[in-house]
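Before relying on records like the one below, remember that each one covers exactly one chain. Contacts with other chains, cofactors or solvent are not represented anywhere in the record.
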Amino acid sequence: MFIQTEETPNPQALKFLPGRLVLPEDFGDFSASYINVEECENSPFARQLLEINGISGVFFGSDFITITKNIDFDWYLLKPIILGKIMELFINNLPVIISADKTNRPETVEISDEDPLVRQIRELLDTRIRPAVAQDGGDITFHSFVDGVVYLKMQGSCSSCPSSTITLKSGIENMLRYYVPEVLEVKQIEN
């Protein structure tokens, strides 16, 4: 088994590509994010990774895993341990996530799915923004749209990236404001 790694814009996050699906197909296009062992009920694999000294976050995309490390640790020490855990999981055909319930899926607080503005914002996020962000090892999910402000949650490499504010304001906010003039601002929801 060959696992590729890619750097992300966040120097504390590294993207691992095992060359196969990471999340179960019934998980859809959602992602799963873990930042502490207590929230790993549906993923013993995420628990194993978070128990590695120096790991501060685990993010599962459809076909990649993004690991975030503490600033005091070096990738050259952590990477072989992480690669070993990923290889062990896939060679033994163990599940990444035990059940595809709503645990660790993006939380949304919607005005209404019937609201055409919310549908338009979500469509732009799903078709134009999320695929680009996934290439950098992260995800951005819709939380709510209130009084002209779109609230988004950044996950994976994006959650602690030094350039996430620039991405949010210069990229995402500009695009949403261009296509949906009712959008006045975009704000990040903290974890």
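Residues 102-111 have pLDDT under 50 and may be disordered.
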